[in-house]
Specification:
alpha/beta; three-stranded antiparallel β-sheet; seven-stranded mixed β-sheet
Length: 437
């Protein structure tokens, strides 16, 4: 995959071949082999601002399947389980961040699950209930004054890239995922706003994505091959996407999910305190996304770290040394000989990379326990117990049928009716009156 992608980068004039391969560190500086990060580099990026990575992540306004937030503690009575408020209204959507190879966020794209052709205005702009509306002298809502970052209608995350302000793009699809038409609209937005200028002999925008079927649609292929707005699009291998896709890194996707769960909890508590309906709606997505995006995909340094780990900057084929791709090597042999400072891991704080990793390990442990219980239920002993229970049920049914056929009756104790109780009470009163007289 690396050889093909590197050759296509050179063909798009966003990279060049080096006459002599060199070793580089994480920052792309030339170093000795003892300080290398990855394998030898024979291709170097020349226009990193023209190289883009896109990877979607699915989300939901419902909180039924939200994971526990690392480090969060709840106070409850001993022997009881903490119960939390949760919104159960389903509102599925997809977030597609576009990141450049130098770590800068290019655009945030949101796709709502809906049969509508376009998202509603309140979905696209969002409604921040923590901010008051701006009204004019007549008391009417001033929509323009109430719209913009930090206002009642905040709009989605804005990115500044190549000297241009790129707004958050919102779309709708029945599945809540990306479609061919949406993908074309995204590229057309970039071309219309001249985000990636074309000039004779200049670079062609390069996009690396996974092999979704929308990338093979003839409409999309025709668009990217149009001479007026050429695009170079490469599809990564369909397996091990968690290793080579930038957006799948724990620094990006892991932080995004953790913050998304945390902010939904806070929003629901805020609505409860205001006496509002305790549900998270589609118009709540954009205000929450503004806060989550800047802590995950909007962090340039975090993006650069994820890009270098996945060998897209510098282009060093580092994943070839990954232990999961080298079963004959141990983890110590597969990685770079540069020592790792374990003390740098923040395990005392309730947030951060270490907390996310520990939370992931705990979730996997719970899953494994569930699998063991399921396997135990499928054991021969459990099956034999099930057969015994069925035999007992059949015996009781046969005994009951025999009783019915023999016209046997079973006397049961029953509570007398109200009429019978009244007659008994009257009879007792007459006896008492007769005795007294």
């Amino acid at each position: 995959m690396y050889n093909i992608v590197y050759d296509e980068m050179v063909g798009a004039k966003v990279a060049m071949k080096l006459e002599t391969p060199v070793f580089m560190n994480r920052k792309g500086d030339q170093v000795d082999e003892s300080q290398r990060f990855g394998k030898e580099v024979d291709t170097q990026l020349t226009h990193p601002n023209y190289v883009l990575f896109g990877d979607k992540t699915g989300c939901n306004t419902s909180m039924k399947k939200d994971s526990h937030i690392a480090g969060t503690k709840y106070i409850t009575k001993r022997g009881t389980r903490a119960q939390r408020m949760a919104s159960t209204s389903e509102g599925r959507f997809t977030v597609l961040p576009i990141i450049a190879s130098r770590g800068e966020p290019v655009c945030c794209i949101v796709i709502f699950q809906s049969k509508l052709s376009e998202p509603k205005v309140e979905w696209g702009m969002g409604i921040d209930i923590k901010v008051d509306l701006v009204r004019d002298l007549k008391g009417d809502i001033d929509v323009i004054a109430s719209s913009g970052p930090g206002k009642y209608y905040p709009g989605g995350p804005q990115c500044v890239f190549n000297g241009k302000t790129i707004h958050c793009l919102t779309y709708c699809s029945e599945s809540g995922g990306i479609t061919t038409k949406i993908l074309i609209k995204i590229l057309k937005y970039f071309d219309t706003n001249n985000v990636f200028p074309r000039y004779p002999g200049g670079p062609i925008p390069f996009l690396l994505v996974n092999g979704h079927n929308t990338r093979l649609d003839p409409l999309f292929i025709d668009y990217i091959n149009d001479s007026s707005h050429w695009w170079k699009v490469c599809l990564g291998v369909p397996y091990a996407t968690s290793l080579w896709q930038v957006g799948d890194s724990s620094e990006n996707n892991g932080t995004f999910k953790t913050e998304w769960y945390r902010l939904k909890d806070k929003l629901l508590l805020h609505k409860y305190n205001l006496g509002m309906n305790r549900t998270i709606m589609n118009y709540d997505v954009i205000p929450l996304l503004n806060r989550v995006f800047e802590k995950s995909f909007g962090q340039k340094e975090v993006n650069m770290h994820a890009i270098s780990d996945r060998e897209w900057g510098p282009l060093n084929r580092k994943l070839v040394e990954h232990p999961s791709l080298n079963p004959d090597k141990t983890a110590d042999q597969a990685y770079s000989p540069v020592p790792v400072d374990i003390s740098a891991l923040n395990i005392k704080n309730s947030e951060g990379m270490a907390a996310s990793v520990l939370d992931r390990i705990e979730r996997e442990r719970v899953k494994n326990k569930g699998k063991k219980r399921q396997q135990k239920s499928n054991s021969p002993l459990a099956k034999q117990f099930g057969r015994t229970s069925r035999m007992q049920s059949k015996f009781l049914l046969a005994f009951w049928l025999a009783m019915v056929s023999s016209r046997l009756t079973i006397q049961t104790l029953s509570w007398p009716s109200r009429t019978v109780r009244t007659k008994r009470r009257q009879k007792n009163m007459r006896r008492f009156a007769k005795r007294e007289s």
